[in-house]
Amino acid sequence: MIKYLRGLFFLLAAGGPTVSYALSLDSTRLILPQQKREVVYQAINSEEGRAYLVSVQLTKTPNGHEVVPNFVVSPQLFRLNPNSNNAIRVRLVSIAGLPVDRESVFYVMTAGLPSSPT
After folding, report:
1. What is d(CA 105, CA 65) in angstroms, rounded to the nearest whole number?
2. Does a structural domain hold residue 73?
3. How far apart are CA 7 and CA 20, in angstroms?
4. Res 81: pLDDT
5. How far apart are CA 30 and CA 117, in angstroms?
6. CB atoms within 10 A of CB 8
7. Which of 20, 53, 67, 68 has the maximal Cβ count within 10 Å?
8. Is residue 15 part of a domain?
9. pLDDT by residue (tens digit) across 68-85?
10. CA distance 15 to 76
């Protein structure tokens, strides 16, 4: 009976739904070295027939309520066509208020809104 339940559990777990995300990023961490003023990463749309409206912002907290004034994200809002990618640039514009003796952690929030099917 236990072998039967194990086999049934394995079949249910292996045959479960799979998720495929069409909008992805080429990196999960962005590191800005002290001697550089900007870092670039890519937003990638791997879906065939659907474009995305992508919004990007840099925040101090993971919940996204406090925007960081020291950096500029360009572009902040753009259309990402099917099977394409777009470079997103995070540029340091001011070091005022940032610690000089240790690292700072910020969160890049990238969200995509899919277009409606045609």
Report:
1. 15
2. yes
3. 26
4. 94
5. 33
6. 10
7. 68
8. no
9. 889 999 999 999 999 999
10. 39
The identity of residue 73, as a single letter, is V
Residue owning tokens 């277009």: 115
- pLDDT above 70: percentage of residues in the chain: 82
Query: What is the domain count for the chain?
Result: 1
Residue in the block written with tokens 């009976």 = 1
**d(C-alpha 64, C-alpha 59), whole Å:** 5
CATH code at position 40: 2.60.40.10
Q: Evaluate whether residue 7 is within a structural domain.
A: no
Taking a C-beta distance cutoff of 8 angstroms, is the pair 16, 9 a contact?
no
Asked if the structure places residue 52 within a domain, the reply is: yes
C-alpha separations of 39 from 17, 46, 65 in Å: 36, 23, 23
Q: Mapping DSSP to helix (H, G, I), strand (E, B) and coil, where does residue 32 land? A: coil
Q: In 3D, which of 39, 41, 46 has the Cα closest to residue 110?
A: 41
Q: Which residues span the domain enclosing 70?
A: 21-114
Identity at 23, one-letter amino acid code: L
